[in-house]
Specification:
single chain; alpha+beta; four-stranded antiparallel β-sheet
Length: 419
């Protein structure tokens, strides 16, 4: 029996060997190819991880160097203050001694703020470095600085150690809750900060669309704790709570009411939401239940990118003629072209807003400047240039105050500067 079984087994093996030998598909070669592809993908992942770690290490090194320089300044000033104090103790004039003590006390108080200083202003005409606290107090003068027309500005550094901001393009401020919402187009999320710059939360990143995920968000507006975000690739608008909960969504690709084709910027008034429906060449207006109200079209509204609602007017930045158009809010009729930009301007990165005096602030990252225009004549009142070490991102306003969002090129820190 054993011999017969062995003969049958050998016959079966020979049969299968013959079948495998006659197969046209080389499974062993295919397995080798799969192994090689897996190894290549693994090497790519390791290379990308190494590059990211190297970038993070460089940022940490830059931050360490920055704080080391601040520490050196602190030590020098403390040493000078101690010397002044010793000289003051030797004088017999009590009035002079008291005056010097007051000066020393002020400098001590200023130095306690130095570690929280996030903004350095530069003035070419004075040729001095001014280290200014968040309260606008002058702390140290050293080096060569950069000049600006804006006075008494404050600067808030949005926390980088907690949240990474790759491409922040829009900032809105909730005056009710005193929170800043920064829209990050690359990360597809909204990052929420306190007015002091402390990170609170972010939402929208890494989620499916039905659960509140975002698809290339390009515009954001906030009203009474309700956050409205346009999705340029999802061709829709979504409403969130400030805690990141998705409340409702409306829109799909098309040209009918409540349909969009690459929606970009948006703004709100007390009753409605105004949306730049870019490739449909129109402004679409919805109410706060995201129901259709009306739409504006015309030759003056071609490829609208951004808009601001001011009283009974709509101001629209169009990429077709690279200009800002003034339109009647009720009828949608064209009134005038107020500002025509240079043909070389990067329209996609330009932003504008209004202050409490209805002056228009235009942020142009290509020229590192913010220009201010009078409300009626739209003549340039003045232009303020920012340091090239900072990349201007956008300009916004809240309760009449104007803010510029900028990023440090060396450390990638994002700052919100009130001007």
């Amino acid at each position: 029996n054993f011999t017969q079984t062995s003969i049958k087994l050998n016959s079966t093996l020979a049969f299968f060997d013959d079948r495998v030998a006659n197969m046209e598909f080389d499974y062993l070669a295919y397995i080798d190819e799969l192994k090689e592809e897996v190894q290549i993908n693994f090497d790519r992942i390791i290379t990308a991880a190494n590059l990211r770690l190297t970038s993070m290490l460089q940022r940490l090194t830059n931050l360490a160097e920055k704080y080391r320089r601040n520490q050196v300044i602190i030590e020098e000033e403390l040493e000078r203050i101690s010397s002044l104090l010793e000289d003051s103790k030797k004088t017999s004039n009590l009035n002079e001694f008291d005056e010097k003590m007051r000066v020393v006390q002020k400098k001590r108080e200023a130095l306690t703020e130095l570690t929280s200083v996030e903004y350095v202003s530069v003035k070419w005409n004075h040729k001095c470095l001014e280290v200014v606290s968040n309260h606008g107090n002058m702390l140290v003068e050293r080096g060569i600085l950069y000049s600006s027309r804006f006075e008494n500005r404050t600067d808030t550094c949005l926390t980088q150690s907690i949240v990474s901001l790759l491409e922040p393009i829009c900032l809105v401020i909730d005056s009710t809750n005193q929170q800043l919402c920064l829209l990050d187009s690359t990360n597809c999320c909204v990052a929420v900060f306190s007015r002091e710059g402390e990170f609170i939360r972010k939402f929208g990143q890494g989620l499916l669309s039905i659960w509140g995920g975002m698809d290339e968000p390009k515009g954001i507006s906030i009203r009474d704790g309700r956050v409205f975000v346009t999705q340029s690739q999802g061709h829709c608008i979504k409403e969130y709570n400030l805690d990141g909960t998705l409340k409702r969504k409306v829109g799909s690709r098309g040209c009918s009411p409540r349909e969009f084709n690459t929606p970009l910027g948006l703004d709100t008034d007390l009753s409605n939401i105004f949306i730049c429906d870019c490739l449909n060449n129109r402004i679409q207006i919805l109410d706060y239940k995201l129901q259709f109200v009306k739409r504006f079209t015309g030759t003056s509204i071609k490829f609208p990118r951004q808009l601001k609602v001011l009283e009974n007017r709509i101001f629209v930045l169009t990429s077709y003629e690279t200009c800002i158009q003034e339109i009647d809010k009720q009828e949608g009729s064209w009134i005038r072209s107020i500002i025509t930009l240079d043909s070389t301007a990067q329209v996609s990165k330009i932003s504008f807003t209004f202050d409490k005096a209805r002056s228009l602030f235009l942020c142009n990252p290509a020229t590192h400047s913010v220009s201010v225009f009078s409300h009626n004549s739209m003549q340039v009142l003045y232009t303020s240039k920012f340091s090239e070490n900072r990349e201007l991102l956008c300009v916004t306003s809240s309760n009449g105050d104007v803010y510029v969002v900028a990023r440090e090129r060396e450390t990638s820190e994002v700052h919100c500067i009130r001007i």
